[in-house]
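#struct-pred

JT: dropping the chains for the assembly here, can someone run the whole complex?
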Amino acid sequence: MRIRNAALAAGIAAALLAAAPASAKTFKYAFQGVLNTLEPYALNETFTLGTLGNVYEGLIWRDKDLKIHPALAESWEVLSPTKWRFHLRKGVKFHNGNDFNADDVVFSANRVRSKGSDLTNYLNADVKVTKVDDYTVDFELSGPNPILNYQWEFWYILDKEWTEEHDAVSVTSASDTSPNYAALHANGTGPYKVVSHEAGVKTVFEKNENYWGKVEGNADRVEFTPITQDATRVAALLSGEMDLVYPIPVQDIPRVDGNQGTRAMTGPELRTIFLGMDQRRDELLYSNVKGKNPFKDVRVRKAFYQAIDENAIVKKVMRGLATPSALMISPFLYDRAGEFKRYPYDPKASKALLAEAGYPDGFEVGMDCPTDRYVNDEAICQAVTAYLARVGIKVDLNAQPKAKYFAKILASGGYDTSFYLLGWTPSSFDAHNVLFSLMNCRDDSGAGSPFNNGGWCDEKVDDLTAKILVENDKTKRDEMIYEAFKKANDDVRYIPLHQQGLAWGVSDKVDVAQRADNVLSFRYVDVKE
Amino acid sequence: MLAFIIRRLLQAVLVMLAVALIAFTLFRFVGDPVNQMVGQDTTPAQRAELRESLGLNDPVPVQFARFIANAARFDFGRSYQFKQPVSDLIGSRLPATFELSFVSALFALLVGIPMGVYTGLNRTSILSKLFLTISLIGISLPTFFIGILLIFVFSVTLQWLPSFGRGEVVDLGVWTTGLLTVSGLKAIIMPAITLGLFQMTLIMRLVRSEMLEVIRADYIKFARARGLPDRIVHFRHALKNTLVPVITITGLQLGSIIAFAIITETVFQWPGMGLLFLQAVQNVDIPIMAAYLMLIAFVFVVINLIVDILYFVVDPRLRVERAVQS
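RK: done, full complex below.
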């Protein structure tokens, strides 16, 4: 009994102590998803990597406008088209006090490409990484790559000694049988340290007083809680328990704005929402047209495009929180995006095109759609279904949760779809990723462009994609990107719908910066008195 | 008695096996876990490799046998999402769910019984009609709606109670509790009411109808005739006799409170097993789903076993029957 009382007293004391530093500036926020793991190479997903970016750092970092700045690398030079030299920052310490140096970079380069890493594409397997001296590292490539370091904000550098000491050299993966230390603990060089991490419940961060750089914001302590339910998340903001919640449903934006003490922060996101069509099979899997594939006819594809009133979808379904898109990439990521225009909404022209292609009465087609992946995804599909019905296309909509949807329409499901809605954000912030992932030829197993679910193939676009990868001259490169996108647009290979918008609910007590890739950086969190 | 318990235990094992089998058959229709485990740039070849290494390509009977063999050693594998042993995850979430269920059950009993007695005794009073109306709402409104309604009134509008989470938690070593801190106590009020409202209604209506029945019985009339005060007649003689079915129902309902905490936990972001399970369903985290379903089946089996044993102890007729049979 006495022991139990002692434990109880100790517990209460601990709870009181934990609550004590109330004067410190605390920032509390909630996101709809869970921070599954602290292992920085386990999942190539923006929320996980973006959150870990407050704790870990890469050789470069991107500011609130996504501009590249030196981070752990002080500077870099391209010695030859295939050889890059990075000069590392001196005097940087990891949270455990260890020094950062070239060994850590070489070690991290091996680890990120090791088995179990989900970030293997951040650094090609044939790149040779060598230590020149303690603060200089060379990267030797097999071919030129002008965007080598574009993704490296999320390739975090780990401390070699710490990782080895805790037996975490191999990347955590679910197939491992032993628990991995790095999944539950973090040791970076970043401006914040992880104080405690309870996966799916709460993660607490604290300012790193020994951070090498300057931080704009002033939060001393940051608490993250996942809140899955939209209504609960918004309520937590309105009741003042949370300083920031994201995303908020588009229909709640007026409510958050109208509430005293909170505001909705909206902005464009890098994600493009589009429709794809099976252009590979000789007969569609889900259609009443037998013996041929109507989507192989560019007139049918264009008829679909012009039958959909995208402006109305943006206005009604997205409540204005989206921008109609003429291109498969965000205009922020491609300088010449303005030269592309959408085909106008024109149901008459659409009907004429269908009649010309031999379908005056339209036809039936099955459509696949996720229900929990993109903003109002199911509602968009329903709107598309309604618009297509007006020109005689009868769409049989199959809307499913993402776990089932992706299992069906991706390579693992044998690209089991005729017509689908998908969203894409190029992880390298560059057009090459879009071309390479969505617009090149592929075979039935998905070798080639794995997410070209429609399976269309244009040798010309493939050629351009290969050249774009190694072209160092920006003007020439942009010209080739233009050509490739124009080809796809002229042939209506995809029907781009819109750039989805971001919606955060923010308390007036704080100032934050909203990055277009939906990353919340603690560096910009300013807690007012 | 011992033979009875052993027989029951053997039946329990069969029940657990059946639950596991049904669960495994269902997992095939939940979706593909691999796409939820990797980022968009992971190639189909890498995805296929991961699927193979997780053993997802094996036939269902093989996967099932492997699961049973491991589960028999209390090894439920590692979560696909969290990369942590499932037993650790469930162990850390268990206290939250059990505390919530316990407080809900307590609420249901402490409020439901007096309301039942009152409405049974005063059938025509206005207050009785009010109670009955409230209980009708409790039975007909879905849990998530009640939860969101409470959040809207008490968190957003009045700002009295927290809208999510468990508040400050005290770690007692093997158990974490929110019942020792003010914020923890405040946090449990709304989830407990949401979860317990249906049970409260059930108990109230049960007590009421039993009370109506008992109050007409001869021994109550005799008690009145003896000139005993109303208080003693109502509470010592009448209520005591209504409680037998109430105890049975409460015991059985405790299992469903734990199992149905899923929705309440999701609405209030209560960090318990139900929330863990629902997130696992969304991400096709099969090890968590399997372990959770087994645990819930186990809870039901144990409660049933206890109820069976209690019957055996309480009801002499059961014993006599068995004695005659053997």
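JT: nice. Chain B has a mean pLDDT of 85. The radius of gyration of chain B is 24 Å.
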